[in-house]
Structure formats: structure tokens, C-alpha cells
């Protein structure tokens, strides 16, 4: 959730990862003339990859897919249990980094709504913008894409205009989202609008980062403690279940047998407790 330390990309650890990443690319795409990599973490790690691609004489093109931040928050809440505020900040961090670190590269902004409404036109626009000749053309994989891009899979949908008008959405989120929508429409405002928002976040982190780190550490400790006691409870329930089984075994042995009234009464009480 916090900013990725920019000086890490010049560290020895980063150089080690670059070597491993270069080997991976050469192994996965040895003879490919056009490769596609989709990974949200590229938003934060593009400064690591750009020197690798240059060294391998690979010309990168960026397709930056934009989804409504409230839809992203809804998906993250369902999948990870994240609260909305955390998800919105994650969205902001990722899109700001993606826009900033892809400057100077051929790139195309696409909204999720554009893709669902007219994927054929969107694919053609991506090809024109990035000067890519699709190897199979736009029509060849149409049945596969039509089957994949279904609105039924969109469990969280928010109107862009309504999102921008909501007072409970932070202004930095709305301003960034508005910038990205305009970029996807082909009329991006000046980059300095996003630079200003990025600077605001960096300045805020200098104040709040220590508290955030401490809170995250406390939550982690509480989670570990809870996990420990859940394990203890599981062990105790296993022991109780063993006693239940033993009671059932002993009860079956005395069923139909003449036993003292006191013993019969005790077993009856055990049966009630067991149920």
C-alpha cells in the first residue's frame, strides 16, 4: 500500500532480479515476434523491467486497462476482505505508478467499459495506437473473445459519472480517475496533474508511514495469535469428539443388558449430553 522505494531499483538485489528476469524472458519467449504479459504487479515494477527489455532489444508497448476504482474495491473486498479505503489507495498507487513509469513508451489507455462495450473497436484502436499488426487479425479469435468477455462476470458495476460525483470518494481518486478516462478517450490532460497527486501521497507517507507500519505489524501479531488459539480449539474439539465416540461405544455395550438403575441413569444423562 505504501510507495515502492525508488532507490531499490538501483540496488544489488534489483540487479540480481534483473538477471533472473532476463533468463525467464529468454526461456519463455525464445522466438516470439509478439508477446503479451499480463500482471498487475508490472504497474509497480516497470522500472525493473525496462532496462531488461532494452538490453534484450525488446520494444515494449503498454496497454493500461482502467477500471472504476469502486468496482476494484468491491472485487478486492469479496476476494481478499479488504476495506474500501485500503482498496482505493491500492488502486491509486497502481495506476499512478503505471502512468508515471510508462511515459516515453508507446502506450494506449483503455477502460473496462470500452472493452466490454466494443472489444473489436477497442482492439483495432490498440493496434493503430501501438502500431501492432495482430497475427490472427481481429476476426479470427472472435468466438473465443465473445465467450470470454461476458457482462455476467462483472459482479460490481459503477457508473463513472456517479463515481466522480460522490462526496465520499477522496478527491485524489476522482481526479486521477477522470484523468485516466480522458486519456482512454484520446484527450489526456497534462501529466503534472498526476505528478501533483503523487507528490501529495509521498509527503503524506513521510508523516503517516511509521504509524501505518506499526498498525500493520499489530494486526499481523493479532492474526498470528488468533491462528494459534484456533489451532488450540481444534485440538480441544478433537479430544471432545474422542470422548463422544467412547461414550457411544460404552453406551452400545450396555444397551439391552440388565444394569443397575443408577448406572442406567448415568448413561441416559451421557446420551443427552452427547446429543
Structural write-up:
The chain has helices spanning about 10-30, 40-55, 70-80, 85-100, 110-115, 120-130, 140-150, 160-165, 170-185, 190-255, 260-275, and strands at about 60-65, 105-110. The mean pLDDT is about 85. Helix 2 packs parallel to helix 4 (about 85-100), helix 3 packs across helix 4 and helix 10 packs antiparallel against helix 11. With about 280 residues, the protein is mostly helical. The chain has a two-stranded parallel ribbon with strand order 1-2. The chain has eleven helices and two strands, in the order H-H-E-H-H-E-H-H-H-H-H-H-H. The two termini are about 50 Å apart.
For the largest beta sheet, what order do the strands appear in spatially? 1-2
Helix content: 55-70%
Order of helices and strands: HHEHHEHHHHHHH
The number of helical segments is 11
Count the strands? 2
How far the N terminus sits from the C terminus, by CA atoms, comes to: 49 Å
Structural class: mainly alpha
Characterize the overall form: elongated
Question: Mean pLDDT, as a whole number?
Answer: 85
The radius of gyration over CA amounts to: 29 Å
Which blocks of ≥5 consecutive residues have pLDDT under 50?
Answer: none
**What composes the largest sheet?**
2 strands, parallel
Strand content: under 5%
In short, what is this structure?
The chain is mainly alpha-helical. Helix content is 67%, strand content 4%. It contains 11 helices and 2 strands, in the order H-H-E-H-H-E-H-H-H-H-H-H-H.
Amino acid at each position: 500500500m505504501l510507495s515502492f522505494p525508488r532507490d531499490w531499483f538501483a540496488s544489488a538485489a534489483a540487479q540480481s532480479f534483473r538477471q533472473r528476469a532476463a533468463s525467464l524472458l529468454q526461456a519463455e519467449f525464445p522466438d516470439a515476434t509478439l508477446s503479451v504479459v499480463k500482471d498487475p504487479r508490472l504497474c509497480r515494477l516497470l522500472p525493473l523491467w525496462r532496462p531488461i527489455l532494452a538490453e534484450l532489444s525488446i520494444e515494449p508497448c503498454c496497454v493500461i486497462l482502467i477500471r472504476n476504482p469502486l468496482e476494484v474495491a468491491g472485487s478486492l473486498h469479496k476476494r481478499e476482505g479488504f476495506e474500501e479505503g485500503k482498496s482505493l489507495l491500492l488502486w491509486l498507487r497502481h495506476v499512478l505508478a503505471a502512468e508515471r513509469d510508462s511515459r516515453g513508451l508507446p502506450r494506449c489507455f483503455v477502460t473496462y467499459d470500452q472493452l466490454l462495450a466494443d472489444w473489436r473497436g477497442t482492439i483495432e484502436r490498440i493496434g493503430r495506437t501501438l502500431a501492432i499488426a495482430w497475427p490472427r487479425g481481429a476476426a479470427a479469435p472472435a468466438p473465443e473473445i465473445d465467450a470470454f468477455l461476458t457482462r455476467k462476470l462483472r459482479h460490481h458495476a459503477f457508473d463513472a459519472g456517479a463515481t466522480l460525483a460522490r462526496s465520499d470518494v477522496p478527491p485524489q481518486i476522482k481526479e486521477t480517475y477522470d484523468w485516466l478516462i480522458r486519456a482512454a478517450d484520446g484527450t489526456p490532460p497534462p501529466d503534472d496533474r498526476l505528478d501533483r497527486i503523487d507528490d501529495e501521497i509521498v509527503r503524506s507517507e513521510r508523516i503517516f508511514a511509521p504509524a501505518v507500519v506499526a498498525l500493520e505489524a499489530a494486526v499481523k501479531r493479532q492474526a498470528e495469535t488468533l491462528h494459534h488459539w484456533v489451532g488450540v480449539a481444534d485440538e480441544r474439539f478433537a479430544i471432545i469428539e474422542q470422548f463422544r465416540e467412547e461414550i457411544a461405544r460404552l453406551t452400545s455395550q450396555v444397551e439391552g443388558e440388565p444394569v443397575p438403575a443408577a448406572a442406567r441413569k448415568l448413561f441416559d444423562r451421557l446420551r443427552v449430553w452427547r446429543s
